[in-house]
Amino acid sequence: MEKHVPSVTILILNFNGRRHLAENLESVLATDYSNFEVIVVDNNSSDGSVEFLNEKYPDVRVLRYNRNYGFSRAYNKALSSVNTEYFALLNNDVSVEPGWLATLISYVEKDRVAALTPKMLLLRDRRRINAAGGNCDVYGTGWNRGNSETDRGQYDKSEETFYGNGGALLIRKQVWQEVGTFDEHYFMYGEDLDWCWRARLRGYRIIYVPESRVYHSWLGSKGHIFYFLERHWLSNVLKNYTLQTLFKIMPRYIIIKLLKMIWVFKNAKPDNKFFVPKAILWNLKHLKKTWEKRVKVQNLRDVSDSHIQRLMFKKSFELLLRFGNLSHPALEKV
């Protein structure tokens, strides 16, 4: 009897990324797996991406939108018509090893697995890590584990991680249907952490698989990234914690953000000095909508916040980064 090979759809999100597509697709199409299809989801590129795909890769399915929907809505629209057992999300500037997908699939039968994430290394310096899974502190701040570290084998153990980086993430379709889609208020950044957090509330696990390796042409953080992350981290906290936990963490949360605002105002570039209060104001403006989503999330809850927090960093990552003895090369410039 032949062993069942789960079906997988690989979705590649693209916006004006023609310069990356050849390297990306050559590696993806060389994936050593017998049951997958590829879809490029194009957010109304104006750089000739779609024309390039139609000419050079006519067998690759392209979904072209008439506007830029960002990360969450573009993927949500595309995934509404995906019927495979699993789907893999890939950034357009990611290259993969031939065995990346088969290695991830080999872990899918582990108990209560919602998603799996590979080891992501830097494309132009393959000795350095971009993400070895994702960490999150109890105040909702997320970060790529191991980002910018030299790979010395310190993250070579397959294990549970709080969330998986949306730049390379394999998700079980059945869990996606159960947990819900990405939050479409999140134009970009923070939606992967939010979705994995919600999956955890249902009792599912996210697994980091270091034997699966992909390479990311990551160029570091730009100013607008910090604004989007800040506003979505707060939104995640408001939606995903119980009221009891919110009341418990909020006094310290407010102090942390006040200290962060002071530090950013003193040290950030002029264009970025006010991204923290802007992010807070965005959440106040959308509080009613956030609370409506929160009700739905809490109705899906199967596990306690204490169970969720067992994999969270117990201290404030931001305070340790800015005022403590923690260094993080990828986040030291704002």
Please specify the SSE layout and strand pairing.
Blueprint: E1 8-14, H1 18-29, E2 36-42, H2 49-56, E3 61-64, H3 70-79, E4 86-91, E5 94-96, H4 100-105, E6 113-122, E7 129-131, E8 134-136, E9 142-144, E10 159-160, E11 168-172, H5 173-179, H6 191-201, E12 205-216, H7 223-240, H8 243-267, H9 275-285, H10 287-299, H11 305-308, H12 317-323
Parallel strand pairs: 1-2, 1-4, 2-3, 6-12
Antiparallel strand pairs: 4-11, 5-12, 6-7, 6-11, 8-9, 10-12
List its salient traits.
334 residues, alpha/beta, ten-stranded mixed beta sheet, two-stranded antiparallel sheet, 40% helix
Short note summarizing the structure:
The chain is of the alpha/beta class and 334 residues long. It is built from 12 helices and 12 strands.
